[in-house]
Each structure stands twice: as C-alpha cells, then as structure tokens.
Amino acid sequence: MEFKEHTLEFLLAFDGRRHWYEGGYHVRFQIMRVKATIERPHGLRYAFTLHDPKGKRLIGFDNAHGVRAPGGKKRRKTPAVDHWHRTERDKGRPYAFKDAETLVDDFFTEVERVLMEHGVPFDVVEADDEGAML
C-alpha cells in the first residue's frame, strides 16, 4: 500500500502528540514507519488511544498485536494485526485498515462518541508533545 506523501508525513508528525479535553481526558498518538510485512502491510506501527483523567485507556486503535476475528476462540487471527478496542474492557476486534485518513476519521468518531457518553465536549483545549513511545 502506498500513501500520498503529504498524508503520510502529516500523520507521522503526530507521533508523540497529546490532545487534551476538558476534565483531563486526552488522546495520545504514537505512529512510526516500519518495514511492510504481512502483519503491517501499510508499513506503519501505530497506537491512537483515548484516556480518562487518571490515564486509563477508554478506547484505542492500534496494531501492536493480533486479535481473533469475532466468533470465539476457534476463529483464526487475521494476518494483519490492525485492530481497535471499543471499550476499556474490549480485548480488541479486527480493524480493516484502508488508509491513514480513514484511520484518523474512525478514531475521532469513536473519541467523540465516548467523550459524549462522559459528558465531555469534543473540543481540544490544549495540545502538547510527550515524545515517541513505540
């Protein structure tokens, strides 16, 4: 898979960024180029996560490990390790990575959903760099 260079560079520039929302809720972006493999055919390693004020992960999109397809333990893992966690207890479900723009859109759709459930406005109040962590 190839990305338009400007889209890829824009996304890679988010590595180490945090966006803060009211009450201490925040999102973290970790992303880096890696060799394209069957597990990461797009050549990216990433973790986009939303955290509560105490730092507990509420949702996340990442490709740190494989997850089983829905349907129980007998279902095989997919070769690609892209997945997302819909709740803090969700062990992950496969995510069909299409492109960087769709990944970011899907992530922020879920961030907005969860923030609304917690009564937090979907307005960034501050942004900073915490450094790359992958």
What report would you give on this structure?
The protein has helices at residues 5-12, 100-117, and strands at residues 17-20, 26-33, 44-51, 57-62, 83-85, 93-94, 126-129. By secondary structure, it is of the alpha+beta class. The chain has one domain (5-129). A seven-stranded antiparallel β-sheet has the order 6-5-4-3-2-1-7, covered by helices on one side. Strand 3 (44-51) and strand 4 form a beta hairpin. The longest helix has 18 residues, at 100-117. The model has no long low-confidence stretch (mean pLDDT 87).
> Are there runs of 5+ residues with pLDDT below 50, and where?
none
Encode the helix/strand succession as letters.
HEEEEEEHE
Quick one: overall form?
A: globular
Largest sheet descriptor = 7 strands, antiparallel
Category from helices, strands and their pairing: alpha+beta
State which percent range the strand residues make up. 25-35%
**Radius of gyration, in angstroms, nearest whole number:** 15 Å
Total domains? 1
